[in-house]
Amino acid sequence: MSQWSQVQQLEIKFLEQVDQFYDDNFPMEIRHLLAQWIESQDWEAASNNEAMATILLQNLLIQVDEQLDRVSQEKNLLLIHNLKRIRKLLQGKYHGNPMHIAVIISNCLREERRILAAASMPVQGPLEKSLQNSVVSERQRNVEHKVSAIKNSAQMTDQDVKYLEDLQEEFDFRYKTIQSLEQSDKNSALIKQEMLALQAMLNTLDYKRKEVLSKIGRVIHEIDMLMSNMLTEELLDWKRRQQIACIGGPLHGGLDQLQNCFTLLAESLFQVRRQLEKLDELLTRLTYDGDPIPVQRPQLLEKVNFLLYNLFRNSFVVERQPCMPTHPQRPMVLKTLIQFTVKLRLLIKLPELNYQIRVKATIDKNVSTVSNRRFVLCGTHVKAMNMDESANGSLSVEFRHLQPKEMKSSAGSKGNEGPHMVTEELHSISFETQVCLYGLTINLETSSLPVVMISNVSQLPNAWASIIWYNLSTNDPQNLSFFNNPPAATLSQLLEVLSWQFSSYVGRGLNSEQLNMLAEKLMGQQVSYNDYQLSWAKFCKEHLPGKSFTFWVWLEAILDLIKKHILPLWIDGYVMGFVSKEKERILLKDKTPGTFLLRFSESNLGGITFTWVDQLENGDVTFHSVEPYNKGRLSALPFADILRDYKVIMADNVPENPLKYLYPDIPKDKAFGKHYSCQPNE
Question: Which protein family is named in the record (predicted)?
Fold first, then answer.
């Protein structure tokens, strides 16, 4: 069954997650119509190879043309229209940057695998549960409801201001008419009656001015309360969900909803500002003793401007954190002189701002890091925000050609840094711009989550461990001295994040038994790990007992082994992997002779071995294991073929394959047959 077929069978809550990452960058129609072809291409390799990406883009357009021919014969007008639009969109968007679509499709396929893995897990972890809190969903609905009510109130106040303007114009006309009369005419009874009517009208004007100012004050108060409480919490929640998604967790959404709220509030505040300007106009034409406008208007205008400043400052966010296209599963780890991408969005989407806001990117601006190393950004580091590049029309800017370059240090300290020093140094990518709108000038600044700078790809695993630990342990967006005294992490949450590393990187997460084995390896004993606190040193710096490597280096080597050599077997769920030798024997001892299982080596980095059970003539059970296969041997021969062709010398010197059933009782050829190459290897 294709991956897309499996996706379509998911429950609605998982399908909603899938829906979030398909847009005009890669339309779902194409994913659906070309499912088999798309899954058979190596998009990840193409994302790092422009020539390969160019060929794949050409082939993708050919596939779309073939679908167009097919639906044209079926006279499916709607599908014909959509496919023509999509073909034009793909051609225009990626003709000059074919690697970009390779990155997008690779990411979509990886997210599908992560969601499929999450759907197959019987229990949600503590972090994922916290992200799907029903209280959070209720608050989101309340925010949207209140924003809509505020917008309606501001529009209703517009009508009150218009009524006040009409009333004052009538008063002006009648008053000027009386003033133009001769003095003798002003003493007539009729005029005196008109003067009484004008006094009553002035009283009404005074009442309506007070009423309008009161309504404006209530709208401002409602906006203030919403921004101070629920909207701030919503934005912080989104930023926390982004942190978790960056380390392999559930895909985060909700930014479009926040954009809608921010935009409506900005529109309401500018509307209130215009109402206050209109009141100022009315004031210049008519004032009187006890007039409320000169007393209340300056305070209200000051409050409106203050709220606009705060709203704009909070609306400038990093939509997609810095990431090297060559390592899409390892965001916030940047290598010197290698390009990275980062995307920013202004959540206040006003047409007047399109192409009017220029954003400048810098590194470690006004920040004292714990490092002696200093960097500059090379490449295009100033760009204008616009609504044309994003599929959803958001006001955003994406930097695609930034490169960090290390400045030479006269202190010469770089060579003295220990193996963990570089990967525990945190740096900050900062962005600044200025908004000039309707007489307001607002300076905006924001920063990425902390990044780790590496100069050699061998530093990537430990750098990624730092990113995991930071974003698991804190929601502080800018604690660059975090690793001066890194806090311990709750083991239950860490295990959940480790499972995400497998689901996001190699398409299948870890089950409870596999996680138990990792917990025992980290703790050294079998106890309940729900409240166990694990130190950073034990995770990434101290060697495992009797070994020359750390827990994280061991785990990262297994991820690399799966990715490069046994990925299909892992995704099918046929690699138990994380099981100790003792547990392995308990599982196999009562099984049919020839039953075997696959596990990762605990003594060799990036090794996989298999053990089978046999029975002697006297009925005793015996176990046989092989030396672990590492990437060197697996590069020469696929692992499925090794299992198919493995033989030992049996009685009468006859070679025989002892591997009959994959644990618990799956015939070997049924499990691995589809992964065999054509010809057996003796």
Answer: Belongs to the transcription factor STAT family.
